[in-house]
């Protein structure tokens, strides 16, 4: 396959990842109707995604199921247990309190914090593209929250902002702590480690709650959460391999827009025009911060393979 075909295929794979992965938040919001706590719902999400990914990766290349040595296994499990479980628990808590569209657009402010942490911890220089990105994201954030100030939960907004900071820290530190690991292996352990942690936190409770199997609708919703999380992550890392990180993250910025559309169709959530404009500005800021530059060693605000 020649280079243009690989690039075209990679773009399609990255788009498919965004289309699939953007459904996780909408399905999770729907699943809250079954009266699970954020901790319980998140456990089901990671358990289902882990099972699916073990099967998919095992069938495609079973060597990727295992780290290269015991030290790497410990680092992957320990780092993911803390820096994936924490942000996603904050995310699912905020998602319970906020409309899906507001939650997703707020979450995608994290590149602004990631660039700051990269400057502090990795001593990467601050570029004009990053400053422009932060400015656009800040304006979008003001519009998004200003239009919805009286109608959204303040606790939910603060929880989601804490999530963005924690996730940005993960994205930056992972560049130093986890090097040379195949993205598919990293993505797998980003699911497995939180699943183990959440099972330990809910020890004595069923691994899969009876409500998961209480009706056909419930089974479809929870299965959809697992399939969306696992499928979206797997396709995303494949897209990175085919078209590179910067192009993949630009396409990944479609996620909040798609989630807002899914929430409108499936949950009946409506955004005010000003709030939608703010959300689109946030996405624009992410794209600006990840546009290719002619200079080398420019930090990227690429998310790691954790997501929601």
From TrEMBL:
Keyword Hydrolase: no
Keywords: Membrane, Transmembrane, Transmembrane helix
Record-annotated EamA domain positions: 10-145, 155-288
Membrane-crossing residue ranges in chain numbering: 12-34, 46-66, 73-94, 100-122, 129-149, 155-173, 193-212, 218-237
Record has Membrane as a keyword: yes
GO cellular component: membrane
A Pfam short name: EamA
Protein name: DMT family transporter
Organism: Candidatus Cryosericum hinesii
